[in-house]
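Per-record layout

source: Muntiacus reevesi
name: N-terminal kinase-like protein
length: 807
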Amino acid sequence: MWFFARDPVRDFPFELSPEPPEGSPPGPWTLHRGRKKATGSPVSIFVYDVKPGAEEQTQVAKAAFKRLKTLRHPNILAYIDGLETDKCLHVVTEAVTPLGVYLKARAEAGGLKELELSWGLHQIVKALSFLVNDCSLIHNNVCMAAVFVDRAGEWKLGGLDYMYSAQGNGGGPPRKGIPELEQYDPPELADGSGRAVREKWSADMWRLGCLIWEVFNGPLPRAAALRNPGKIPKSLVPHYCELVGANPKVRPNPARFLQNCRAPGGFMNNRFVETNLFLEEIQIKEPAEKQKFFQELSKSLDSFPEDFCRHKVLPQLLTAFEFGNAGAVVLTPLFKVGKFLNAEEYQQKIIPVVVKMFSSTDRAMRIRLLQQMEQFIQYLDEPTVNTQIFPHVVHGFLDTNPAIREQTVKSMLLLAPKLNETNLNVELMKHFARLQAKDEQGPIRCNTTVCLGKIGSYLSASTRHRVLTSAFSRATKDPFAPSRVAGVLGFAATHNLYSMNDCAHKILPVLCGLTVDPEKSVRDQAFKAIRSFLSKLESVSEDPTQLAEVEKDVHAASSPGMGGAAASWAGWAVTGVSSLTSKLIRAHPTAAPAETNVPQRPAPEGLPAPAPTPVPAVPTTSGQWETQEESKDTEEDSSAADRWDDEDWGSLEQEAESVLAQRDDWRTGNQASQPGQASNPGHRSQESDWSSWEAEGSWEQDWQEPSPPEPPPEGTRLASEYNWGGPEPSDKGDPFAALSAHREAGAQSRRDSWGDDNWEGLETESRQAKAELARKKREERRREMEAKRAEKKAAKGPMKLGTRKLD
């Protein structure tokens, strides 16, 4: 009936491309591009149209259909589906290109490398070895037309039309009847001489020699041309000559030919072939072998073809991570291969793996992800960052490994533009405040200040007003000199975010205190910042109409464009805990300043020996700072109203030489060894401010309106109870050190590396008076208790013999 008459071609799940056939090889088949209807994935479709009177060719096509369907080998064209009707034959395979077309296209693009050719020939010879040695089949059609190339650059052996059994079953070889294919037949088939006594592989190895000649020299004009190797590499010529020898018994077995070419110095003995062979057997390799392979793979990827990296190496890397527990070693080659992908492919293949990696507890993987974040951050969208990545990244702020804490801080510079309001202005600020106040590593505290200055433009106006001034003021009281420099540079880099009132009442008093800092570099930066702030204030004072223009960014919404001025104001400090952290990450590197001979400054006298720092996770490899002293300014900028964006604010690494001997333990307070330092109000204010932030969850109260100092709670150990030792004689000729010695009238001589907080100067005397009063009360109480005990003992009288004392 009519409903049984269905068109099998129309119902076939694959469809031909409307494009014309691409370079169909000689023979009964026509090669078309196609796609799968359900998924749209590309395929290749070999089509044979049955013609009347061509029964012999039809039988050849049907035999090839059957052979391709039953033979499965990595180096033989992969069969996917097929259709056989009375009118046509369709054979669907993986998407491939004829070798001739592929070589021509690559020649126009610069030609194939010998590495690619060596691996391609290796694959064809391996396929022949499988057919001859394992299946006892003679291919009988090895030539350029029988070889195809897939999208990864892998060579596949096809053209199975004229294959026959080597054991004589089913008769002799079928007749080709196509001159283009018969020219590759060996000479012993043409003359009926006795030389026809040969090995079963002899004819195919002759044809392999013809294929090698054509790969390097182009189409073969005649058989006599085989005598001249032409452009065949010298390392391959001896083995090629064995293939095209007149005596068929001398031609080597395909397996022995591979062995000869893989010998030391052979054509197929190279890193590319070894990598491919390892990838083919990676599933049965030991974990230690996989680790070593992936560690060495990254070095070789630069010399490998792009298609090979995208379509063969990348799937293996993803599989190794997903199922092979390869861990962090796959990250470096994975991101290297990712450079060859477009944005859509990167989103589909790399990003899901990266998101999954961030949830890993493996420290090595976490730190490598943080270090290489700049390679994939552009492909991450904001919802993914806020919901799947940031919640895992913030755990690094609490990690016990300093290197992870440091890399987590640095990564915020890349993540900040993509964070939402809550994560950026609340969660991140909480972690930054805790790191700046409590972290025992000075460089991490310094880097926190650096990062805050660089992401300040992304913060909301209310957060900027509440956080920036307080945070940078706190940094100026840090015993780690580069942190103090970072605080000054932070003020400078974010100058456009402060009102004139804040500049006059909050910022300049802090900067003025640093003008007598023991470190000259801190003083230099402080003076420079003071001059610029004063110039800004003076310009507004002379022309009040400029106020609106100067303060236009104070209440503006967060904007990425506002961060340009802070992009290169400082480099990262180096912790010395890991060689991985010694690389400076700069958003927009500036030209290197001219080299100047800067003498190494000794640590200021009166400072103690460096306190023992916590033992780092790995040996110190970057213990010395990379100093880059900025060139001295030759002109005063007093006439400049606003030159902050053009100012080179130097690099924090220039503090290295002066602070190497002062690497402090933040928790021990060993930064002051002279008696006056213990009672320094700046020190007390810093500790109390940091502690109060933990309780209140805000940076804000550091800069509330001044109020009378409150007495410390009972049980607080006062600084006067410590034995700080006496002052040491000093012969250092530094007028600023002498200035620092007379900060308080009537106080004994001392040197304070933290600066002087003028707004809390009276609190020291109050605390000392109260301490003395408490001591006297304790003494009186003790004497009263002793008197009462004596009276009680006297009232009872002596104890009688044999009685028991009852308390």
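summary: The first strand starts at residue 14 and ends at 16. Residues 272-340 form one domain.
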